[in-house]
Amino acid sequence: MIKRAALILLFLLLFRVSADASDGPGAPVADALRSANISRPVQLSEWGDTAACFTETDGVKRLILLEKHDGVWRIVIDNPTALLQDYDWPELWLDSDNAVFWTYTLSDREIVRYHSSRNADGTWNPVDQCFSDSGFGDYTHVWGTVWDDAHGGEIVRTFGMYDENDNGHGIEHMEVLPASWMIDCVRLADFDVSRFPTMFIAANDHYAFENERFFREAARTLMPGYTFIKGMLKDGAMHFLMERPDSSRVYVICEYMSHRAVNLIESSPLPAGTVLGWENFTDSLRIDGRCVTVQLLYSGKAGLEYIYDDTAGKDAFLFFGDRTVWQDVGMETVLYGDHPWDDITQIDWGSLPQTRFQASERTDAGHYAFVLNPDPADRLHLREEPDRSSRSLGKYYNGTPVTVLSEQEDWAEVTVGGRHGWMMKAYLDPGRRYDGALWLNTLPMPQLYGRDNEPLKVYEEPRESAYSYHIRAGYGAMKVIGMIGNEWYHVWFPASGEYGFVRQSDLTPGNG
Question: Could you give the domains of the chain?
């Protein structure tokens, strides 16, 4: 009798479970959606007291988020601007009841993922974006973008590399951009993907186009009265081609300073009809049939990066830096001196040089010299005082440029990459060729590389001090000009004019 009663009870229990299951998991959620006229949710996902799905109404894709309070499901977010309208549905994922992700697969190696999390008070945070590209050998390159409410609102972007086990290989770069005007479109309820700064070029033009609105709004806020033509991110700063009220076009770099102040560097007027972006030279101006590219040399100063003339054959490129001009990518011969192309505020865009010789004619090296030891294996001391017994501040390779401040008998008072001291005049060459520029042979300077492709720390002083990461430290971009004791190298980046110090143990041999 007891067994029979147990069987009946088990049958009734199974019937009850079966009856409940007939409505399907998430049925109360579906009821809440139907009450909002959403009968066919896409990728409905539920976790605890949170549910999410997509839907499409009148051709507009929407993100729907529901929460259960006091046992009742309600739609708390219905966002028609959170999704890329010209793409297929992304993959929706709740990894808890406090975090939602939606992910687009752009190619077999590129994905972009959006994410928001819920605070303890129940509000949903600003959306962040992660773009990853696995097409770089053993490491996946990952760019993260998030809006922070600091200083009225700013965009913080990081770059890092990760192995197949998601172990970080170090953050190589971080940049911060002003974005106070985005305060109304970054939280999940109001998130607008078309206004979010997607700072990379995708194969799909529709997605790359999402950048423009961010730059357009930035230009309207930062340069009222000017007309926006085009914008891009480069050198950790926003670059714009703008039209002034007088209809002249200018190139403007918006630098967000370390103390969170906006600094606008505006060029002299460009030739009429100048455009930004030409064929695959997407960051170049088109001037007089040539591609002219601008760079932020260092904080507060911008100049030319290169000029490309496709009619010049093997000499098509002419590169520029702060006090430097060169033609070969390896920077084997560098013209050194004061030239007029390292300051966009003063450039005469109608008389740009076409050859190194033309550039040399307009370069003044009157206050400069370079180290020239009779034996290339020797290195010249920088002394604290004009005396051979004075303390050495470093030993420098042939070709190292120095600024001559004064002369005293056999000695020259100089600065070398920001360091002050004395060098013997007999080992400094003030000679010039082809008019004004010093023609430096950089081959005696050792070419060294960072270990294992790790980001290289370049310090401000030859000691534990402030430093920055450099990812362009090899392939001719960094020259070792001297040795400081047994621990430090003094290095020079001709492309930007920067100097710094690197631990000898952080570098491996290159070509010397």
Answer: 223-361 (no CATH), 368-431 (2.30.30.40), 448-509 (2.30.30)
